[in-house]
Amino acid sequence: MNRLIVLTCCLVAAACSRAESPAVCPPGVGVAVQVLGSGGPIADDARASTAYVVWVDGQSRALIDMGSGSFLRFGEAGADFTGLDFVGLSHFHTDHAADFVALLKSGVFSGRERPLPVAGPSGNQRFPGLDDFLAANLDTETGAYRYLGSYLDGSDRLPQLVVMEVAKDADTGANLLAGRDSSIAAFARHVPHGIVPAIGFRIEVGDTSIVFASDQNGSNPAFIDFAKGTSLLVMHMVIPEGAGERAKQLHAEPSRIGEVAAAASAQQLLLSHFMARSLRDLDSNVASVAKNYGGDVLLAEDLGCFAVR
Questions:
Q1: Is the distance from CB of 5 to CB of 20 less than 8 angstroms?
Q2: DSSP string over the chain
Q3: Rounded CA gap, 145 and 251, in Å?
Q4: pLDDT 10s digit of each residue in the chain, 309 long?
Q5: In what order do the strands lie in the sheet with 116-121?
Q6: CA dist., res. 215 & res. 54, Å (int)
Q7: Is 289 exposed, middle or buried (0-12, 13-18, 19+ CB in 10 A)?
Q8: Residues 6+ apart with CB under 8 A from 125
């Protein structure tokens, strides 16, 4: 079996003979990542925006991001709001967070009672932190969706959000779910995404780990330590090889993605968050990744499911 595993035959005709079907989700035993949204912020790629579910022994335990369109995919995947132990919002671009409030509205009808931990970045002058994002949406007096404000204090029979705003100098080795009855551990660290405060997440289930790199330019070597030895590294291939300097301030080129995955000794690499500019010459961009990384390279598609070895 070739080390390069390509799952999007319609886009990569040359790789069709090597394609593997995604795993069935949820697997009854083990850990899997299901991609709810594999696209970007422009409505031209026939994909929902970024979101991922982590399945553990058939249960949807963690949700990372909830971008535009992923609300529909959450239902199509059969994910369960009541089963979530953790929600991580990497940053507050619409293609990563726009459907989170829609998910909360759906959760009103779920019967969930236990609190829901939610983590996100601290802010700056240009972008809100998690506290301000939730207040802007849910504050009972000023929020855009103030009728859902009971999520902030757990009143009116809604589960309370346990809000964890991750500061830039936060301890990246601290389990955000410490002291909670959870089958997973969650860790977070800030990543370089231009002027946008953003964080990546590491989810651990026993000896298995998944690192969600989020949108980043790959310039901080500390992220490599954070991702070291992960079972599955999820990175976003938003721009093509040879993109301009402005684009590279926000996102890593394919060759840099390969360098980061190799330096982190990731067992597998899942590429996601595609845009038309990175899909246009997908073969060449994937080759730029594989030139620097010798492990399995997987390509995301909406509802694609990837068992984590």
A1: yes
A2: --SB----TTT-GGGGGG--PPPPSS-SSSEEEEEEE-B-SSTTSSS-BSEEEEEETTEEEEEE---TTHHHHHHHHT--GGG-SEEE----SHHHHTTHHHHHHHHTTTT--S-EEEEEE---SSS--HHHHHHHHH-TTT-TTGGGGGGGTT-TTPPPEEEEEE-TT--TTS-TTTTS--S-EEEEEEE-BTBS-EEEEEEEETTEEEEE--S--S--HHHHHHHTT-SEEEEE--S-TT--HHHHHHS--HHHHHHHHHHTT-SEEEEE---HHHHTTHHHHHHHHHHH--SEEEE--TT-EEE--
A3: 32
A4: 334 444 443 333 333 323 344 678 889 999 999 999 999 999 999 999 999 999 999 999 999 999 999 999 999 999 999 999 999 999 999 999 999 999 999 999 999 999 999 999 999 999 999 999 999 999 999 999 999 999 999 999 999 999 999 999 999 999 999 999 889 999 999 999 999 999 999 999 999 999 999 999 999 999 999 999 999 999 999 999 999 999 999 999 999 999 999 999 999 999 999 999 999 999 999 999 999 999 999 999 999 999 998
A5: 161-166, 116-121, 86-88, 59-64, 51-56, 31-37, 305-307
A6: 19
A7: buried
A8: none
User: Which amino acid is residue 235, in one-letter code?
Assistant: M
